[in-house]
Every structure is written in structure tokens, then in C-alpha cells.
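Newbie here. two chains, one complex. Structure please?
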Amino acid sequence: MFKNYIIVAWRNLLKNKTFSLLNIVGLAVGLACFILITMYVMDELSYDKHNEKAERIYRINSDIRFGGNDLRLAVCSDPMGATLKKDYPQVEQFVRIYNSNGSKMLKKGTAFIEETKVAHADSTIFDVFTLPMIAGNPKTALSEPNTVVISKSAAEKYFGTVDAIGKGIEVNDEQHTVYKVTAVIKDMPQNAHFNYDFIFSMDNVEYGWGNFLSHNFQTYVLLQPGTDYKAFNKNFKQVIDKYILPQAKQLMQINSMEDFARTGNKLEYSLMPMLDIHLYSDRFPELGVNSSIQYVYIFSAVALFILLIACVNFMNLSTARSSNRAKEVGIRKVLGTGKKLLIGQFLTESTLMVFIGLLIAIGLVWLSIGYFNNIAGKTLGITMLLKPGYLLFLLLIPVVTGVLAGLYPAFFLSSFQPIAVLKGRTGKAFSRSNFRSALVIFQFFTSIVLIISTIVVFKQLNFIQNAKIGFNKDQMLIVNGTWALNNNADAFRNEVAKMSGVKASSFAGYLPVSNSSRNDNTFSTEAVMNEKNGFNMQVWNVDYDYIPVMGMEVLKGRNFSKEYGSDSTALIINETAAKMLGFDDPVGKKLYTLVGNDNELVSYTIVAVVKNFNYESLRKNVGPLSMRLGYNKWATAFKVSATDVTALLKNIETKWKSMAPDMPFSYQFLDDSFDNMYRAEQRIGKVALSFALLAIFIACLGLFGLAAYMAEQRTKEIGVRKVLGASVTSITTLLSKDFVKLVCIASLIAFPVAWWAMSTWLRDFAYRVSISWWVFGLAGFVALLIAVLTVSSHAIKAALTNPVKSLRNE
Amino acid sequence: MLLELKNIFKWVTVGGNRVFLLKDVNLQVQEGEFISIMGPSGSGKSTMLNVIGMLDGFDEGEYNFLHESVHKLKEKQRAQLYKQYIGFVFQQYHLIDELTVYENIETPLLYQDVKSSERKAMVADMLDRFNIVGKKDLFPAQLSGGQQQLVGIARALIAKPKLILADEPTGNLNSKQGEEIMDLFTQLNKEGVTIIQVTHSEKNAAYAGRTIHLLDGRIEQQVTN
């Protein structure tokens, strides 16, 4: 019986080549999208799961509000981990990770190379995280100063062999420390929230240890099995009272946490499950680029909807074609086949169709995975499909999809009355169906929502590109690592500034883009700091040229100037800081801050207010910021004019090589760094665009088939109408009208849904575009245009047919 | 004279050989005539009717309709011509299943841009005349064959054509219904409508004033009844 099903299914497939092709292509494209997105989602959900104790690892987060400035930190103070372990038996182990500058210069052969995958960590890192060692002892690997654990690929890069234990790596710090390799670990997996090639000993970090008030360390704790971390969070109150308050009392005259809270301030700690970090954590500073659960949801929904669109095609085409099958159903029923067997037969057919589609889909995935990785920023491999879990999933797809797509057509077809169909009275039931209309509406609803989303994402990206950000990011060349030139830094800057094509220069350790240096300090408006007058603010060391070179605008007061001898205690604040301070005229007012390891209180005089500039992503509001005179030579900014940038870069590199032959020359353009902040949005834009196009493509395949069938069904009617004098135009209109109506209804449903979805997305941005009405108009129009173009080719063909042919008697 | 066919040839080429569907057909039809076309299956009756109705072209010869040379007209002008002057009646009635009796009759007027109020009056008139006012909201499937053909004729007449072309109008009807239809044709003819019908039945052919016998695409004889 089953063999018979397959044979009939196969013959039907070959008999209606056009319909089979439309169906299979639609299903294949839909399934390919579905598989790609599933791979993406599985990868996102797999982050950090390779850790054997993953469920028990938690990160300590800090939430601080001080003087109206909110800080949501992924770091906490240096003694916190050890304190928790000492006082609470639930804490089995802790580890701190410190990655202050994000990069180190390491010597390979005779030259230095900049490595970015570096960090310092406690030796307990191997107790908490699962980092399999190829060689070395995890118990002792990082327990001494001047030790480093490197990855397999780092060992191969620096020593040409995995066998690197005992060898030395020189770091270009002040002492030119040589670190001894004590262990080689396997490369960390991509799907982890941090990824390092070099883990240095924590003992080499120069720091004012034991300070509960400075938050600089990523700290992870390993809890005993069965510990409720939410309950554990309550213990932090005790920790604050016992350890933090005494230090705060001493430095800032804060006497109780109640007083502290009463003035609108906040200090809270909490544990965050490590497995949540990749998808839920958006704090500062993160150890890697995190994703968002929002995108996982969005992608999953898109995957499901695209697959549904493909299924809907199948349902639509199968039921539309049902009159072709009606006679077969009639005969089978007369011959005694029951309804159940018929349903089984039709489901076999749909599953066969989906299975063929799946084979093509896997081919499509194989072809497109490179492109997908590129736009989604992933490194997924097709081999992922071969994992047993996924293989089972792949086998389930055709069954589930086949049933999903085939169930309605199966019931529809198997319910025909044999006498009626055999007498040829199939008539009305096939030509129009509300259910089928609903399915077409669903397809276009999805397509239109995707179109609108794509437009809004690109509008926001465009807005970001052209937003008034308060500084000039264009033609700004940043040469990194100029601090390494030591005393030559000034000479280098001056020499380059003299080159043609360079207009101005400034040392620029702090840059108004994410992932550049930051420094915040506690300030107060009075000489005695307490919880009422204290507040946190960014403080950047800049030179005389920084503000004009960056194109920032001084609103009140004056820039730092060599003409004023006292400018070493001058401070320039931004508008947010000025607003927060509440002075009528902040220029001339004094601010106090603690400086140095012995926490000396120093006073600064405000000399200017600078117009707000966005120094973080436009997702965030501009926070309070101040600038004081100082030289941070970490990087140097050159304002260039765009004549021959390549030649200029070559000149600068030559200059660099002559001054620091063993240092790598590394540079960036500020506008590129600016764009990098919106990589995630650009990805979403591209992904949304790709899937919107595919969704529309699949929907159009279905519509194309449906229109062809409708035209065929209505041949007689069209013939009659033509004989009665209908023109080609009126016939085309007649046939297109129904579909246009459906697209219009789909638009009306899609508009509010898309509006809601995109408003939610835009809410993440402090600076955002509005969703104007034309977006909806455009999306509706595009969908309509595509639908009309798809349908009208058939309609016109039908309208041009000679009625004599369609009305012939036989 | 209403129309004239002069030396009309129509053929199809099968395997390099011409197979003639119409061979040197000459016919003159005066206004107010009632003509039957008879002949065995495949003799070219329907083809001839389609040529007269301008639904089908021909390969050679001249066709004049109301002093217009149809063979020289463009497709659009031809459509304009038959829309205005010719009504069609089919053996299978060819009513539009999705439309009611009323709407079916109204359809030709829609394609001739007749105003809504006028259309209403004309359709009401027609329903009245054919005694089918009570059935105006029914769908074709709810009517008997005779009633459907009545609607078909009503639809053919609604635009006040000069010529009715009927392709075996009674072919699917029982004899009583057929008789009624033929009586209706006779009456219409008396009112001045020219009618050309294709029929297999001698009895029905006899209602006409003239019978044309076709054989293998050529006019074998014409008999005046």
C-alpha cells in the first residue's frame, strides 16, 4: 500500500511539473532559511555550556548610582571574591579576570606584535572554568608571578610547536617582563563569552589592592551544588555593611547605607548566572561581544514564519489543484478506500515533497553558509548538521513539515463525495475558499512586516551615520600605541603634523567611541565629600589641541590655553555634567576629587562647558564628562585632508619604523571605529533584508502558482466575458482584483504589528528615528506591486486567449 | 443587407497539408432573416458561426458587416462591432456560475459602459419579458436547463443586438423546453431580430426561413422553407 502511495505521489509530481517545481523550490528555500537560522540560534544558546560546572558559575555584577550617574557594571572590587569565599561556605571557589587595556605588545623574534586576546587571571581560573590543558599543571600554572598560560594556536604562532612549556615571552611593559609559559591549553571555543590566547598571572597587575570602592575586576564565583543564587544575593547587604562602609566612611564621610540611599544613591551587588551572560548581559565592561536574547527571539520567529510561508504555499497549491485529483479520489472511494487511507496517501505525498525540498535545502545551506556567516558575524560550519541531535532534528523536519503542510489538503481532498466528483460537479468549492484567502493574507502579512522592519532598521542606521554627535569623526586618523614611542612620541607627532595632508594633531588616549579608554572619578562640589555632594563623572586627560582637533564646540568659557599658567587645575565639563551640577553659570565654580593612591583631595576650577558629544553608542544617553589637561599618549589623532591617504599612511609608517623599528604600526579611522559600534545593527539590517526578500520570494512562488491555477479555473468565465465584450484590461483587473484585496488586508494587519515590533526595537536607542507613515505606505506599495506583477502575467495571458478555444463544445 | 461572406476560406495546416475548415463560403444575410445551419459533425457549422460572430478569423475572402469590411478591421474595432451588434447563445448556456441571474444578464451592459440606472431598467425589462423576475437572485446551479438557456438568451438580447448567433441552443434541453426556446426565437425574429442558429434537428431548423446545409466546409445547398 505504502509503495503504491509513493508511486502515485511520484507520478503526480512528474505530471504537474510546474506545480511540483513551485512547491519544491518554495519548500527548499524555506527549509534552507529555517536550517540556517536554527543553526544560528543553537549556536547562540550553546554559549559557555562547555564548562563542566557551567550551572554553578556566577558573575558578580555591580549596580551603582552616585550623584545621579547610573553605572551598571560587570566588574566588582578586588577583595570581593576572596571575601565571599572566606565568609560564606556556599562559595566553593572564585576567580578574577583583569583586562585593563585590552591588548599587549608581545615579542616574537625581534619585533613586537599587538595581541588583543589577553588577560590577567587568578590561578583558580582552572578550578572554575573548564580549560583543558595540553601540557602543564592546572594547580600551579598561574600561582607565581611572571607566568603565562597560552593557547595551542598561540604556542604554534610564537614557538612553532605546542611544546612551549618553560619558554619565555617578553611583554613590552615598563620592565620588559619576560613571562614563563607554564601551561598550554586548547584553544577556547568561539561560543564562550570570553576568548583568550594569553592568560597572565594576576600577581603582575599593579594595583592598589584591597580597595572595596574601585570596581575593576570581572569576578566569578563557583557556588556549592544546590545553592540558590537569588537567596545568596541577600548576603551582599552584610558584606557592604561589614567591609565597604568602613572604607566609605573614611574616604567620603558616608556614615550609613541608609543615609547613602536617602540621597538617591545606590550600591547593589548581585550574582548573574554565567550561562545568561551572552544573551542577557549588557553591562560595562564586557569581556567579549555579547548578543541579545531579543535577537534570538526575532530570528526564531522569522525562521518559523518563513517555514510557515513555504507550508502555506504547499497547502494553497494542493487545494487549488484539488479538482485535478478529485476524480482519482472519487474512483478510489468507489473502489472502497476509506478516508483514513486517503489522508495517509496525501500525507505521504506531502512528506515526499518536503523530503525532496530538504535535500535541496541542505545543498542551499552548504552554498550560502559563508554568506550567512558573513552577515550574521558567526563561524558556523555545515558539519554542525552532522551532530546526532541535529541529525535527528533534520529527519524530523520533513515529517513535521509534511504533516503540517499536508494535513489540510489531505482532509480537504479526502472529503469529496465520489458521486459528485465523478459526475464532474466539482465546481464552486475549488475556485474560492476563505481558508485559502486567509493563507495568502498570512504570507503577505509576514512579508510586509519584514519589509517594514528592514526599512526601519536601515533608517535608524542612516540616522546614526548622519546624527549630530558633537564631534567630527570624518578624516580623523588615529595612530594607536604611540605611548610605546616613549620620549619620541612628541617628535613623532610633530613630524607627522608637518607632512602635507595633515591639518592638525592631538594626543588622544580617550576617544569618543566605545571600547576606548575610560576613566571615571568621584567628584564633589564641596571640600568635604559626603553622600549628598558626591557624584561620579568621566574624567579624560586631554591636551590643548584635543577639543579643536575633535571638532567639539565650547559653549561657555574657553579651551585650555598655554596663556594661563593655572590650567593644570582647570576642568572642562560637558552639558550633562553642567545640568547635573545645577549651577546657573558653572564657569569659575570649583569641583573636588580624590587623587592618587593616598586619596588626596584636589580642587579643580571649571573653565568651560563643551557641547554634549556622544562618547558611547547612540543607544545610551550622554553621561556627565569632564576633561582636564594632561597627556595621554596612548594614541595620537591626526586630522587629515583626503588627497592621497594611501601615500600619507605610507609616509607615516616609514616615520614610525624609523623611530620604533620593533613596534607594529597600527592605525584606525575614527569613522570606522564609530561604525563598528553599530555592527550588530548593521547585521540585523542585512539579515532582515535577506530574509524579507526570501519571504517575499517564497510567497510570490505560491501566488504565481495560485494565479496560474485561478486563471485556468476561470478560463470558461473569461471566455464568456470576452464574448460579451470584456476588454483585456477589464479581464486582467478582474483576475488581479482578488489578490490585490488580500494584499491590502494583509497590509492593514501588518502595519500595527510592525509598528509595535519596531517601536520596541527602537526603544533600545536613546537617539532614534520616528517611524513615519511613508514607511508603511512604501512597504504596502512594494508588496502590492510585487503581487500585481506576479499575478498579472497570468491574468494577461488568460485575457488574451481566444474565447473560441475556451468555449469549444467538446 | 446585414452581412455578406464572399469566398471565405479557412484552413489549418497539418503535416504540410491544408485541411479546409471552410471552403469558398458565400452567404448573404438580410436584416430580419432567420437562418438555420445544418450539417454533420465536423462540417464546419460552429466554425462558420464563429467567423460570422468575429470570434474567429479566416484565411481568405471578404466579410462585410453593415458595410464595414470586417477583414480589414483591427481586433479592437472588431470587438467594438460585435459587442454592439451581436448576441451569442450557447448550447452549454455558459452562464457565470458565481453570478446571479440578474448579474449574468447585466454583464454585457457593464462592458458597454451603460449607466447604472439605465442598466437596472434594462435588466428589469428583460426579466419581466422572460417571466423570470422571481428567479433574479438565484444562481445558475439552482435553475433547470431550460431556465438557464432562457437567461442565456436574455443576456444575449440585453444589449439590443441586430443579430443573434445561437450554437445548438436546444442541444442540452428536452423537447418541451426546446420548443419553448424555438417559439421564443420565432417571436424575436418577428420583432425584427436577425437570428442564425446551428442545429442538428430538422424540426428546429424548420422554424427558420432558410436552411443552409454544410458538408466538409462548403455550402452544399440552401433551402428556403
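Moderator note: Chain A has three domains: 57-280, 432-468+677-810, 476-676. Residues 476-676 of chain A form one domain. Thread marked as resolved.
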